[in-house]
Amino acid sequence: MVQRSSQSNYCRGTVITRTMERNLNMLAYDTFQGIAIKTEEEEILAGLMAAQKYLPCKFFYDDAGSKLFEQITRLEEYYPSRTEKSILKRHAEELMKGAEGVSLVELGSGDCSKISILLQVLPRAILKTSTYVPIDVSMSAMKESRSKLRERFGAIEVCGIVADFIQQIHRVPKHENRIFCFFGSTIGNLDRQDAVRFIAKLGKMIRTGERLLLGLDMVKDKTVLERAYNDEKGITERFNKNILNVANKILGTDFEPEYFRHHAFFDDEKQRIEMHLVAMRNMVVKSPFFEEDLEIAKGQTIHTENSHKFTSHHIDEFAAVSKLSVRAVYTDINRWFTLTDYIK
Ligand code: SAH
Ligand code: AVI
Questions:
Q1: SS3 readout for the chain
Q2: pLDDT for 206-245, tens place per residue?
């Protein structure tokens, strides 16, 4: 086992458990100039106690949730994954030009299938000089993708970080010559203001000559959008309900997912898909963390995800707030998805 440069980066085979991760969070709280990191329990409690109940969408991604998301990416209705992949395939050579000694930092790396498209065009000699730094909350996705990457691209050094990229972005190593990759339009899962703040923060971290590749799902016909989040096989519904299993594990609640209904719709004004879980009957939920039982009335919803869609205005706004320049904007024939190559 090799542990590189600092306690928070794990290279080549190190496995971190959730408990260790939590302890590291506490350590991070103590040592990173008082950066306040909320525990998972606190985050879930805050959501369930709010007037409009919500659960932060990062809690979709336990083992089961990560696997369900992979199934979503293969659905006919869910166009964003295959569309972004087709853009990456078409422009991989261009995107990876001069990649010698590069450090590819991927936020929300998931199954690593998108970075693989870029790695595929790199000769072994270049791969040997490169590092891949995936950062993801999902331990299972991280473990699986690490072994897949090893098999396919053994020459590259993989330095995975299991962490929340919002709260713990400071854990990204300060390697030379980094390209930050933020695919899948995962930035759309943040509220508009939070997205702008986060991109501004990334802009501060990015040094002269370094780049950001940002995938954005664009505003389009409402029927196309709503279909993508209401698939016929009901995989998105299972993905949505699974968040209650995660809450049960973390907070010891006794939610019964089968008494909730999946509801996903496009809000024209906010230009976003909202996903909710609608209670199908009155219920009382218990948890050792609650001072009083939680009452949920029939029809009440738990808001589980926002998926904001973008326009060219947002591409420019992100450039302005991050002080990055747009090198190129790549898109598909329908202009449904964009991949912007930003540079400082
Ligand atoms: N980039 C991949 C996966 C997108 S799914 C793709 O485009 O297909 C979103 C991924 O981000 C999941 O793997 C999830 O575990 C991770 N994720 C979501 N919120 C996160 C957060 N706050 N911090 C770190 N990872 C997060
Ligand atoms: C990861 N994220 C960008 C996906 C999205 O489309 O917002 C998550 C997802 N939710 C339902 N389907 C897919």
A1: CECCCCCCCCECCCCCCHHHHHHHHHHHHHHCCCCCCCCHHHHHHHHHHCCCEECCHHHHCCHHHHHHHHHHHCCCCCHHHHHHHHHHHHHHHHHCCCCCCCEEEEECCCCCHHHHHHHCCCCHHHHCCCEEEEEECCHHHHHHHHHHHHHHCCCCEECCEECCCCCCHHHCCCCCCEEEEECCCHHHHCCHHHHHHHHHHHHHHCCCCCEEEEEEEECCCHHHHHHHCCCCCCHHHHHHHHHHHHHHHHHCCCCCHHHEEEEEEEECCCCEEEEEEEECCCEEECCCCCCCCEEECCCCEEEEEEEECECHHHHHHHHHHHCCEEEEEEECCCCCEEEEEEEC
A2: 999 999 999 999 999 999 999 999 999 999 999 999 999 9
- CA–centroid distance, residue 250 to ligand 1 (Å): 19
Give the pTM: 0.91
Which mutation among 144, 146, 186, 243 tests ligand 1's pocket best, with the greatest number of atoms within 8 A of CB?
A: 186
Ligand 2 centroid from CA 158, angstroms: 25
Spatial separation of the C-alpha atoms in residues 66 and 72, rounded to whole Å: 10
pLDDT band at 36 (very low <50, low <70, confident <90, very high): low
Closest residue by Cα to atom 20, ligand 1, is: 58
Band (15; pLDDT cuts 50, 70, 90):
very low
Distance 261 CA to ligand 2 centre (A): 18
- What's the pLDDT tens digit per position in 108-124? 999 999 999 999 999 99
In tens, the pLDDT along 283-341 reads: 999 999 999 999 999 999 999 999 999 999 999 999 999 999 999 999 999 999 999 99
| More confident call, 233 vs 27 | 233
Ligand 1 centre distance from Cα of residue 311 (Å) = 22
User: Which ligand is nearest to the Cα of residue 194, counting in written order?
Assistant: 1
* Residue ID of nearest Cα to ligand 1 atom 23: 164
